[in-house]
Amino acid sequence: MTPRPRIIAVDGPAASGKGTLARRLARHFGFGYLDTGLLYRAVGLRVLRAGKDLGDEAAAIAAAGAVTAAELADPELRSGPTGNAASAVAKIPGVRQALFDLQRRFAAHPTDDRGRPLLGAVIDGRDIGTVICPDAPVKLFVNASLETRAKRRHKELLERGEAIIYARVLEDIERRDEQDRSRSVAPMAKAPDAFEIDTTGLDADGAFAAALAFIGSRLD
Ligand SMILES: Nc1ncnc2c1ncn2[C@@H]1O[C@H](COP(=O)(O)OP(=O)(O)OP(=O)(O)O)[C@@H](O)[C@H]1O
Ligand SMILES: Nc1ccn([C@@H]2O[C@H](COP(=O)(O)O)[C@@H](O)[C@H]2O)c(=O)n1
User: Fold this and answer.
1) Is residue 83 a known part of a binding site?
2) What number of H helices and E strands is found in the chain?
3) CA of 15 to the centre of ligand 1 (A)
4) Taking the CB of the first residue and of the last residue of the chain, which one, N or C, has fewer CB atoms within 10 A?
5) Nearest CA to ligand 1 atom 23
6) Where are the alpha helices (DSSP H) in the chain?
7) Is the beta carbon of 96 within 6 A of some atom in ligand 2?
8) Which protein residue's CA is at the shortest distance from atom 14 of ligand 2?
9) How many angstroms separate the alpha carbon of residue 27 from the centre of ligand 2?
10) 22 is in an annotated binding site
11) What is the pLDDT of residue 1?
């Protein structure tokens, strides 16, 4: 019998460092990695590019049904406006439903970027430990203060060439946090059995060490 894939679920708010940590854990364990935020960003970007309103549920659901793995490499997905668009479409239940199977399939049959099967997966997002993989043996909730997250994201966007002021980034993140926390379907939440890592005073190495110490033998 094929063993069940070993799953590390990583949740947390925007720019908390969960993607940085999740990618490093995936490399360390030789697991597949899925950034589920990119799926919502791809839906938001499709809606924007089609010239539709982000509140147009039918357009957003159709976009979610059409998302392909190939488009997740589009650098525009990482832009500030796309992040805001992602949060707007992520509250539409039909969008979440349309992306659910894809995420569950990856968790059940993780692969590398060439489609070769792997023994485990690291999946990051907002509802991985609570909705997508509630039975994951390892759940992490990565957090950091609002100001720390806004500073990190501001630096990242400036490096991407976006002309944006710090106050605007802070405002966007605060609004996105609130929207993600308060939506009626699959709100961002720390699963009761998740281990919280506050990266406010931790660099990437410190966050990785804290995660490894928690994981211990939980994946054996
Ligand atoms: N522990 C850390 N200390 C300092 N900077 C960090 C740390 N972790 C990540 N960063 C930096 O902060 C920025 C955001 O990190 P990352 O993309 O991992 O966050 P995220 O939670 O995945 O964000 P999002 O959900 O919006 O994609 C990046 O520029 C990254 O290099
Ligand atoms: N599992 C998830 C992942 C993401 N979202 C929504 O997408 C937005 C963008 O996510 P990033 O991780 O790339 O910042 C985010 O603000 C959420 O609205 C989600 O709902 N569920």
Assistant:
1) no
2) 8, 5
3) 5
4) N
5) 15
6) 18-29, 36-49, 57-66, 80-90, 93-108, 146-160, 166-182, 204-215
7) no
8) 14
9) 22
10) no
11) 64
The residue count of the chain comes to 220
Q: HSE (CB half, 13 Å, CA atoms) of 161?
A: 2
Contacts of 213 (CB under 8 A, 6+ apart): none
Superfamily of domain 6-206: P-loop containing nucleotide triphosphate hydrolases (3.40.50.300)
Q: Is 11 in the pocket of ligand 2 (CB under 6 A)?
A: no
Residues facing 123 on adjacent strands: 9, 34
- Dihedral angle, C-alpha 126, 48, 78, 175, nearest 10 °: -50
Q: Is the CB of 20 under 6 A from ligand 2?
A: no
CA distances 174 to 49, 55, 154, Å, are 25, 20, 13
Q: What is the pTM of this model?
A: 0.97
pLDDT tens string 18-43: 999 999 999 999 999 999 999 999 99
Our answer on whether the CB atom of 126 is closer than 6 Å to any ligand 2 atom is yes
Q: Order of strands, edge to edge, in the sheet holding 138-143?
A: 32-35, 120-125, 6-11, 138-143, 195-198
